[in-house]
C-alpha cells in the first residue's frame, strides 16, 4: 500500500467514526434516561410502601402525579415507633416526575411499580 492509500483509508474511517459516535451516544443517553426513570420509580414505590407502614399517607386518590409529588415532598410520622423519622425522595427533577409515571400506577390506594411500563400505558 502506498501512503496515499493509507491516508485515504484513515480518512474514510475517521468520517465513519464521526458519523457513528453521535448516533451511539444518543442511543446510550436515551437508554440511561429510561434506566434512571425506572430506578426512581422503584425508589418512589418503596418509600411510599415504607412510609405507609409507618403511618404516613402519600397516595392521593386517583391522582398519580400528586401522589408522586407527595412522596418527593416527604413527611415525618407524628407518633409511633417511626416518630421523627423522615420519609421521602428528594432531588427529582420535573422531567423525572413525568418519566416515572410510565412505571407507576395506583391500585386500591397503593402505589404500584411495573418495570415493563405496561400498566400505566394500559390506563391511557
From TrEMBL:
<feature type="transmembrane region" description="Helical">
    <location>
        <begin position="6"/>
        <end position="29"/>
    </location>
</feature>
<dbReference type="InterPro" id="IPR045584">
    <property type="entry name" value="Pilin-like"/>
</dbReference>
<keyword id="KW-0472">Membrane</keyword>
<keyword id="KW-0812">Transmembrane</keyword>
<keyword id="KW-1133">Transmembrane helix</keyword>
<protein>
    <recommendedName>
        <fullName>Prepilin-type N-terminal cleavage/methylation domain-containing protein</fullName>
    </recommendedName>
</protein>
Amino acid at each position: 500500500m502506498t501512503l496515499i492509500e493509507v491516508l485515504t483509508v484513515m480518512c474514510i474511517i475517521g468520517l465513519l467514526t464521526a458519523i457513528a459516535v453521535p448516533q451511539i451516544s444518543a442511543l446510550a443517553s436515551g437508554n440511561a434516561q429510561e434506566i434512571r426513570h425506572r430506578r426512581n420509580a422503584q425508589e418512589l414505590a418503596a418509600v411510599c410502601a415504607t412510609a405507609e407502614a409507618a403511618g404516613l399517607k402519600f397516595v392521593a386518590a386517583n391522582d398519580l402525579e400528586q401522589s408522586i409529588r407527595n412522596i418527593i415532598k416527604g413527611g415525618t410520622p407524628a407518633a409511633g415507633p417511626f416518630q421523627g423519622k423522615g420519609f421521602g425522595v428528594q432531588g427529582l427533577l420535573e422531567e423525572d416526575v413525568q418519566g416515572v409515571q410510565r412505571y407507576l400506577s395506583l391500585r386500591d390506594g397503593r402505589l404500584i411499580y411495573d418495570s415493563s411500563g405496561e400498566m400505566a400505558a394500559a390506563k391511557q
